[in-house]
Amino acid sequence: MKLVQGHPKSLKSVQTKYCAGCGHGVIHRIICELVDEMGLQSKSIVTNPVGCAIWADLYFDFDSVQPAHGRTPAAATGIKRVLPDHLVICYQGDGDLAAIGTAEIIHAANRGEKFTVIFVNNAIYGMTGGQMAPTTLVGQKATTAPLGRDPVGQGMGYPISVCELLATLGGTRYLARGAVDTAAHVAKVKEYIRTAFTAQMEGIGFTMVEILSPCPTNWGMDPAESADWVGTVMTDQYPLGEIKNELAVARNEAAAALKGEAT
């Protein structure tokens, strides 16, 4: 019998700390499969901040740095500039990236920093008790919005669509959004991340893959219900697909620049 898929070398064989039905473990495996397939284990560095993402270094068997909450893009900027031949991954949750780290992600993206962000969006603060996040849906309940997010009456504002926001910036080259609610969507997420990693290693500008991920514990659902909620509710607010793809343009620009230098 042919072995189709084994345990990734870059993924440690340890018991998970994540809740049953959480999407982080699936995302970890996708990343590690790609690191192995691209032969980058010895040249990969993950920056993972406060939040559920902080546990990533327990599972990734390559270098990691834990920046302060929300400051991951700033740390990744320095790492990538010093080690441009390395694969530098920002692994961030929605509370970290879209709330306390808003300034860092916007300016890193606008500068076209050449690292890849893996943005895990479960529409809530997972580690700290289920508070409303910038990505919490209208009407979705949270510990700080027990009746549901009310954008007008309670002044809670609207969900932030990060990919669409960053797509307006000149430094962003590849932005995609996937989900881990079904096997087909998991395969698509891997395709998006491969594209982003490949672009990064070619020296092309800022890349990010947003991943809609279940949080059964803080949503008050069982794992099956939470996966269904991702596919039937979250995707209405956050459509799946490539939001911005300027990789061909970037490659043409790079080729033209090299040709100009040669002449």
What structural keywords apply?
263 residues; 15% strand; alpha/beta; 7 strands; 9 helices; 38% helix; globular; Rossmann fold; seven-stranded mixed β-sheet
Describe the structure.
The longest helix has 19 residues, at 183-201. This protein has a 7-stranded mixed beta sheet with strand order 2-1-3-4-6-5-7, with helices on both faces. Helix content is 38%, strand content 15%. The protein is globular and about 65 Å long. With 263 residues, the protein is of the alpha/beta class. The N and C termini lie far apart (55 Å). It is built from 9 helices and 7 strands; from the N terminus they run αββαβααβαβαβααβα. The chain has helices spanning 24-37, 72-82, 94-100, 102-111, 162-166, 183-201, 216-219, 223-237, 247-262, and strands at 44-47, 63-65, 87-93, 116-121, 172-179, 206-212, 241-245.
Number of domain units: 1
Low-confidence blocks of residues: none
Gyration radius (Cα, Å) is 18 Å
What kind of sheet is the major sheet? 7 strands, mixed
Global morphology: globular
Strand fraction equals 15-25%
Brief overview, please?
The protein has 263 residues and is α/β, with parallel strands linked by helices.
Topology (elements, then pairings):
Blueprint lengths: L23 H14 L6 E4 L15 E3 L6 H11 L4 E7 H7 L1 H10 L4 E6 L40 H5 L5 E8 L3 H19 L4 E7 L3 H4 L3 H15 L3 E5 L1 H16 L1
Parallel strand pairs: 1-2, 1-3, 3-4, 4-6, 5-6
Antiparallel strand pairs: 5-7
